[in-house]
## 1
Amino acid sequence: MNLILLTKSNTFILGWITALFGYVMEFIYNISSSIFGIENVGLAIILFTVVVTLLMIPLTYNQQKSMKINKLIQPEIQAIQNKYKNKTDQKSQIRMQAETQAVYDKYGTSMTGGCLTSLITLPIMLGLYRVIMNMPAYINSFKVYFLNIASQIQLQEGFAGKLAELAASNNLKNADLTQVNKLVDLMYQFNGEEWAQLQQIFPNLSEVIVENSTKIMEIMSFGPINLMESPGMKISWAILIPILAGASQWLSTKMMDMGNKDGKNAQDDPTAQTMKTMNTIFPLMSVFFCFTFPCYIGIYWVANSVFRVITQFFINKKVNNTDVNDLVRQNIEKKNKKRARKGLPPLSEKTVEKNIEELERKYGMAGGYSAPAQTRMAASPARNMVDAGKQVNNTEYYNNRAAKPGSMAAKAQMVKEYNEKNTKK
């Protein structure tokens, strides 16, 4: 399966990302060539992946911290969801939203805390693929070998029509081959057989084609593997790429899941179930794509997964050795600093109840409503911390409240239960 290439990307979002990564890739390639005397796309991709993986460590670390805190939050969130499970009226939905937000505020995090990191990494990943899928557009010292051939071909009469069959077989049927960059895009997809066909089409250019294509294929080889070809279902060294891609991707996604020791909670935890599904789907996707895409994509995929496993090992070790109370305290401090810059008061019980009252006024809900005691924040930062080892049974707490929400009896009961729980601690 060949890919449709469009030279350099100039889209609003990906254009500047691919340009930046293109400069990095060209710098790495030139360093490898000038200092070590090695011109090799596979090596450049691996070194490039190391650099990008190191740059993404802070994002990965923040994501792991969010996952650790979310595991602590999930029982409370699930208890609230169970409490309003069969209530679809607007008032109940607003109250569920308010209680849920109060829980996130208590831990100094947000509903989108873990998603933001993933959204940031998405354009980075797409930018990387664009650079790797069209290396000649970003590495001038590599592109020159294609230009040596292209410049001679464009001097031949009717060259575009003669290349129509090769262009169609590489999904470039309607490409304007009179543009040198489009011609380079086409040749970048050639394997050994197609270079031989090009010699037959332009026999008078056989010498220049052989000289430059030999160098191109040398640069595009990684050991016994030709990076220009797809592994397919044939027996060759290239089949190692999808196998390694699947294995390394499985290990990478497995390490992303910090694990839930409690099997029962793991079954009820949507995050744990999502990670379990990812551990199955992502490796299979890696195997499929690496079987069908050219091997230079597979080299990147394997290198990316392997280096993520290495960095993830150290990140997990650091996160696991960090007290969750310290993570919560740091989150609250950061959130309060952001609120201070906006002229807002620090998070406290009063701010949580104020948010709830504003929601009630917004939706015309009469009567006061107080968040459950377990979701309300104490004024003292020390009391905002949650001891995971002494965590109360939140489901039982939320589901067993008999008093009508918002009533004096409910408020009295909440104060009583809150005091009892803190006394036991």
## 2
Amino acid sequence: MPRPFNRVYGMEKPMGASQWVRHSAAAFLGLASLLGASGAGAQGMVKNTFGDWQMRCETPAGATAEQCALVQNVVAEDRPNVTLVIIMLKTADGKSRLLRVVAPLGILLPSGLGLKIDQTDIGRAGFVRCLASGCVAEVVMEENLINQMKTGQQATFIVFQTPEEGIGIPVFLNGFAAGFDALP
């Protein structure tokens, strides 16, 4: 599984391979089922809504238990072709909490995905894989990040089209705390 966001937000030094470890195929298959075949939006039945977040659940093929995720789809205010799917979930073994972000194709992958919560720079995460529907960044959420998201007003995810040009996409955190606590 990936490690938390790299604390080097400005990328003065490159993220080394030690910043990430490979995530399991089962975890990635869970993402594929949540994104569905088209990948444009999260699939699964909406079980509940928590402010700006939806809890979507489905039982993946071959699984005995339903898997749920907290999901928000967002669009850049000034660029309607730049959309993100934000997915928060617990792993099947219940030991880790993951943040997955699916960004559109055509972004600059080496720059990673930036994150700010309110005015605090959290860091950048690398992209782990691209699918026909977009490129995926994934991090294990540590308690500090979870608490920042629970108490924050707005997260800004940043994708890059050039090394100098970041596109900030606001994600409102209204309802995140209740939704995250409600995840099975």
